[in-house]
Design a protein that fits this description.
This protein is an alpha+beta fold. The chain has five domains: about 10-75, no CATH class; about 100-165, no CATH class; about 175-245, K homology (KH) domain (GMP Synthetase, Chain A, domain 3); about 260-310, no CATH class; about 320-380, SH3 type barrels (Roll). It has helices at about 10-25, 45-80, 170-195, 225-235, 245-255, 265-270, 280-285, 290-295, 310-315, 370-400; strands spanning about 100-105, 115, 130-135, 135-150, 160-165, 200-205, 210-220, 240-245, 325, 330-340, 345-350, 355-360, 365-370. Helix 3 (about 170-195) packs across helix 4. The model is unreliable at about 1-10 and about 35-85 (pLDDT under 50).
Length: about 400
């Protein structure tokens, strides 16, 4: 509603109205004690606007009081002492016990991952062949862990059951499937060459009930194998599935001998691939030559992980290279550290050209000098070279005197 004094100019009235509201709230801002200041209303505001603004101010006061009351309540609740723990005989709620399950561990292939199954009241000894129920039907497996009880955190529910111990017919069927896998492998190779696909066939696996035929292959790129699947389905008259795997999975499936002369860990006993980094080789003072620390798959060897934790624990209590230590023979610098033996090689300040071995328990670390072991080693090599050249000159002079 336009003011009577603005001659109907609504735009000017709106600007004046907003400006007066800002002045009003600035002058009538409530204090923290909850007591409002005295209202300072300009003469330009009409009575209706003043009443509206007063109501809004009172609403702000009530909200401020509620906030302060809640803050006081929180402070009082924080100062209350914690209640004493109740005892079991007083009717306290008991903690829910974690469920336990009776399971049997089986593997579907040698070196593969172990899976838990419900025994189904069947006594299975280790290395017994059984028929189990899986998501893709019945499968032939080998027991690697007899019946035992495990906690619910180790089990993936729902647990599937062991159907029966493998019979003679089951054994013959499994042998027939192995023969069919060889034939399917050769057939797939010919089809791959026919379609000129850039893929390497690794392994073929038949489902126990012949309901599915799986082909595992590797490739550096994505492969369009739709036509290949159609040809294979027309030949074998069953469901065909092609799976692209990595180079480490290829080594796990094929197997072989490592540079240590033993079978691949991943193929013989390692169920899952562990994370390996070049840092593990550095911590163990190994050569960083990729040919020496890489396996047949071309990746870092899994066995780098085996002793890594032990090296970290021993290195933490062994003086580092370049550490200034106090020895029974005087002060010196560590030039080589052998954490597993608990021994370090020290160059003494009084005789830098001679290195001595000390037990880490006999040393006291006094400081650190970065790069000092290199200087000590260089001086030792120079002294050795000078001594060698001096000995050679002495021998030549002796030969000349003899002549």
């Amino acid at each position: 509603m336009p003011n009577e004094n603005n001659n109907g100019n609504n735009n000017n009235h709106g600007k004046k109205y907003n400006r007066n509201r800002r002045r009003f709230y600035k002058n009538n801002r409530p204090k923290r004690e909850g007591k409002p200041q005295e209202e300072k209303v300009t003469a330009e505001l009409n009575p209706i606007e003043t009443e509206l603004e007063t109501e809004e101010t009172e609403l702000e006061y009530s909200e401020q009081e509620i906030i302060e009351e809640e803050a006081v309540t929180e402070e009082l609740s924080e100062e209350e002492p914690p209640s004493a723990p109740c005892e079991a005989e007083e009717g306290c709620p008991k903690e829910a016990k974690k469920p336990h399950y009776e399971v049997v561990g089986v593997r579907f292939r040698e070196g593969g991952k172990m899976y838990y199954f419900e025994p189904n009241n069947i006594d299975c000894a280790e290395n017994t062949h059984v028929i189990v129920e899986t998501a893709r039907g019945l499968e032939y497996a080998t027991v690697v862990m007899p019946k035992r009880t495990v906690s619910g955190s180790e089990v993936v529910l729902p647990l599937r059951k062991i159907v029966r111990i493998a019979t003679d017919n089951d054994e013959r069927r499994h042998e027939d499937n192995l023969q069919k896998e060889v034939e399917a492998y050769n057939m797939c190779l010919s089809k791959i060459e026919e379609h000129r696909l850039d893929m390497k066939l690794v392994e073929v696996e038949y489902a126990f009930d012949n309901s599915k035929l799986l082909f595992y292959f590797t490739s550096e790129e994505r492969v369009d194998f739709r036509d290949l699947v159609k040809d294979l389905a027309s030949v074998f008259r069953t469901r065909i599935e092609l799976r692209q795997i990595g180079i480490r999975d290829e080594a796990k499936l094929l197997g072989g001998l490592g540079i240590c002369g033993r079978p691949f860990c991943c193929n013989s006993f390692l169920p899952d691939f562990v994370q390996v980094s070049i840092k593990m080789a550095k911590e163990q003072n190994l050569s960083l030559n990729s040919a020496k620390i890489s396996g047949a798959c071309g990746r870092l060897m899994c066995c780098l992980r085996y002793e890594y934790d032990t090296y970290l624990a021993e290195s933490a209590i062994t003086p580092k290279i370049d550490a200034i230590v106090e020895t029974p023979d005087g002060e010196g610098v560590v030039v080589e550290s052998m954490p597993l033996k608990g021994v370090v090689k020290v160059a003494l300040d009084k005789d830098p050209s001679t290195f001595r071995l000390y037990r880490r328990d006999d040393l006291t670390v006094k400081g650190h000098a970065k790069g000092k072991h290199k200087t000590v080693g260089k001086n030792a090599r120079d002294d050795a070279q000078k001594q060698k050249s001096g000995d050679a000159g002495t021998k030549k002079s002796e030969k000349a005197d003899k002549k």
